[in-house]
């Protein structure tokens, strides 16, 4: 826990966080068929966007805007239900900024930078000294106040949040080449030969999509960018590289502001942008000591809390025992004579007698009927699993009926189930 958590948050009180939550999330396949990636469920009761929003709130930021675009209905509904406690009389602001053709007819958000540029007139009214730009689709805990402090102390034009990754894994990121002072001297998008860190030649600094700007400076750069016909109007592709060349860009290492019990623990950050990554990150939460601590009351993950009864386990007979081992079971679940192992069940899941679940991620209000056997699957919200369905034992049969990844994870939706019954 950062040592200044209980002290007055000087910089955060003068900061606005803008969360970019318009991403399609196409690599999550059918999980983003009706919802944007930031609205995808995670961790038993939360949505992915709750992590960036909770970090901002816990860091002391009380002015937050969320820019939405694609398939935004479920995301907006979640924000209205779960994040409606900000009070204007306390100088708190929580604004949803959907793409609404405010600049000209037919012009939606053209890129991440354009999503902010189109709302400059609104954001000017909040009179924040600093702007923190956040991606709304990553899982992590971070104290943005520490990043703000570095930004001010270094007199940077932009401070870029960076994670340390092995060089061989950095080829899929935007990578920062920095000098010994932390100043960014080059920015390379998905390089074949990532530049190493000055103090660790085996690792590289990859962008987290988190940026801190002085408000006035940011808006000037954005207005210039809107006039550039050759720009893609994106922070990572246009704004940041231009500042690296013509201004002062500084790297902020995630390890210095990651919220964790001790520096010996992993600096946890995950992009759950594929079905395999989504399944793995959720199942990892069932570990005896998971790398992501959801039980830390000093840095809670805020979300919409449904009014549901406690989880219920019934029946105690041989082969018909309502039981769960090494699993997370949310409120409203009924485990009726089913066996659950190393699985994560969201709100309102009903598992019926003689069914078996291993390494299963079941989103809210799933029903697993009798004698179903499921292994290494993700089940979308509201799906009804037929009696006796077996998934995870025959790869060819699984791939024929459902979406099966190369690593063996099966994604099941109601449309896939309905096709089985035709």
From TrEMBL:
Q: Which reaction does it catalyse?
A: alpha-D-glucose 1-phosphate + ATP + H(+) = ADP-alpha-D-glucose + diphosphate
Known CDD domains for this protein?
ADP_Glucose_PP, LbH_G1P_AT_C
Molecular function in Gene Ontology: ATP binding; glucose-1-phosphate adenylyltransferase activity
Metabolic or biological pathway: Glycan biosynthesis; glycogen biosynthesis
| Residues annotated to bind alpha-D-glucose 1-phosphate | 109, 174, 189-190, 207
Domain Nucleotidyl transferase residue range list: 17-286
Official protein name in the record: Glucose-1-phosphate adenylyltransferase
Q: Name one GO biological process term.
A: glycogen biosynthetic process
Recorded hits in HAMAP family, A to Z, give: GlgC
Q: Please explain the role this protein plays, according to its UniProt record.
A: Involved in the biosynthesis of ADP-glucose, a building block required for the elongation reactions to produce glycogen. Catalyzes the reaction between ATP and alpha-D-glucose 1-phosphate (G1P) to produce pyrophosphate and ADP-Glc.
Q: Where is this site: Could play a key role in the communication between the regulatory and the substrate sites?
A: 69, 108
Task: Cite the EC number.
Answer: 2.7.7.27
Subunit details for this protein? Homotetramer.
Similarity-based family: Belongs to the bacterial/plant glucose-1-phosphate adenylyltransferase family.
Question: Start and end of every Glucose-1-phosphate adenylyltransferase/Bifunctional protein GlmU-like C-terminal hexapeptide domain?
Answer: 309-412
Q: What class of enzyme is it?
A: transferase
Top-level taxon in the UniProt lineage = Bacteria
Query: Which UniProt keyword terms apply here?
Result: ATP-binding, Carbohydrate metabolism, Glycogen biosynthesis, Glycogen metabolism, Nucleotide-binding, Nucleotidyltransferase, Transferase
Q: Name one Pfam family in it.
A: NTP_transferase
